[in-house]
C-alpha cells in the first residue's frame, strides 16, 4: 500500500526525510549512486542464491554435511568453540586475580584473550549459521516444489 499523504489537492509534494530513510536513502540519492547500489545488491543476491543452491536438497545429505561441520577434523564442537571455551577460563582467572586497572602485561593478556574469545565465538556463530542453512534447505526445497 503506498504511503501517500492525504492532501487537499493533487499537487506534487517532496519526499520527506522520513520516507527517504525508510528506503535507506535511495529515494533522494543520485542516479549513479542508485545504479551502483542496485548493482551491488544484485551481486549480493546472486551470491546468496548460488550459496543456497550449493546446499544439499536431500535431508540425509543435509544431516551428513551438518554433522561434518559440527565435528570437523574429529573435534567435539564446531570450529572456534573449544578455543573460546578454554580462553574464557583463562580470562576468568585473569579478571579475578589480575590487576586490570593499570597498564601492564596482565591487562594486555586479558585484552588479547578477550579478543581471541570474541573472534572464536564469531567463527562458531558463522559455522552454526551455516549449519542452520544446511538443515533448513530440504524443507525450503520441498516447499518450493509444492508451489505452482
Automatic annotation (TrEMBL):
This chain belongs to the protein called Uncharacterized protein
Q: Which organism is it from?
A: Pelagimonas varians
